C-alpha cells in the first residue's frame, strides 16, 4: 500500500469529533480514518480533549433530577452496540455500509466511461462515488461549500498534486482545479459536497489556513 500524503486537516477532524460536520463529509472523514493510522491517532487525541471538557461541564451541571435519571439509566439494560461496518473490496466500512444489500454501488453512466453512484443527496449535503477511466478528466459539478474527495482506487492529479488511495483533497469553489485520472487502474473516488448556508460561516474558518480567504 502506498503512503497516504494528503490527510484530513486538523480543523475538520475537530469538527468531526464535535459532530458538527454534515453527514456526507463525516462519512469521508470516517472512511479516511479507517485507512489512515495518522489521522486515527490525531482524532483520538481530539476526542480525549473533548471528553475531558465534557466531564468538567457535567460535574458543574448535574442536577439532582439529572443524577436520578442517570442512575435510572444505569439500571436499564445497556444498548446493543451495532457491529462496525465491514470493508467491502475497495470500499472502507463507512462506505460499504451505504451500498445496497448486494454490496454493489448504484452506478449510473455520465458518458465517456465516467460513472457516478449517489449514496446520499439531501438539501444539506450529498455524497457520491465517481468512476473516472484512466486518463480522463473529472466531470465538472457545481458546489458552493466544502468539497472533500477521497481516492479509493487508482489516482488523479491536478494543480494541487497527485492523489492516490486514501488521499483526501479539500476543495472549495474558490479553488480552480481540473483533476485528471492518472494512467493505471481507473480512478474511483468518494466525494462529499455541500451547499448549505449554515456552513458558510464555518467553511471560511475551516479553509482559511489553506486558501488564505
Ligand atoms: Zn490521514
Summarize the structure in words.
This protein is α+β, with helices and mostly antiparallel strands and 213 residues long. It has a single domain (1-213), classed as Jelly Rolls, CATH 2.60.120.10. Helix content is 37%, strand content 23%. It has 6 helices and 9 strands. The strands form 2 sheets. The protein has a 6-stranded antiparallel β-sheet with strand order 1-2-3-9-4-7. α1 crosses α3 (37-61) and α2 (23-35) crosses α3. It is elongated and about 65 Å long. The protein starts with 9 loop residues before the first helix and ends with a helix. Residues 4, 7-8, 32, 36, 38-39 line the site of zinc ion (ZN). Zinc ion binds next to α3.
Give me a quick take on this structure.
With about 210 residues, the chain is of the alpha+beta class.
What binds here, in terms of ligands, is: zinc ion
> Biggest sheet: strands, sense, closure?
6 strands, antiparallel
Approximate strand percentage: 15-25%
User: Number of DSSP strands?
Assistant: 9
**Which residues form runs of ≥5 with pLDDT under 50?**
196-205, 207-213
Q: Count of helices?
A: 6
Tell me the number of structural domains: 1
Silhouette: elongated
Helix % is: 25-40%
End-to-end Cα distance: 35 Å
CATH architecture: Sandwich
From the 3D structure, determine the CATH topology: Jelly Rolls
Q: What pattern of helices and strands is seen along the backbone?
A: HHHHHEEEEEEEEEH
User: C-alpha Rg, in Å?
Assistant: 19 Å
Structural class assignment: alpha+beta
CATH class: Mainly Beta
The overall average pLDDT, rounded, is 81
Strand order of the largest sheet: 1-2-3-9-4-7
CATH superfamily descriptor: Jelly Rolls
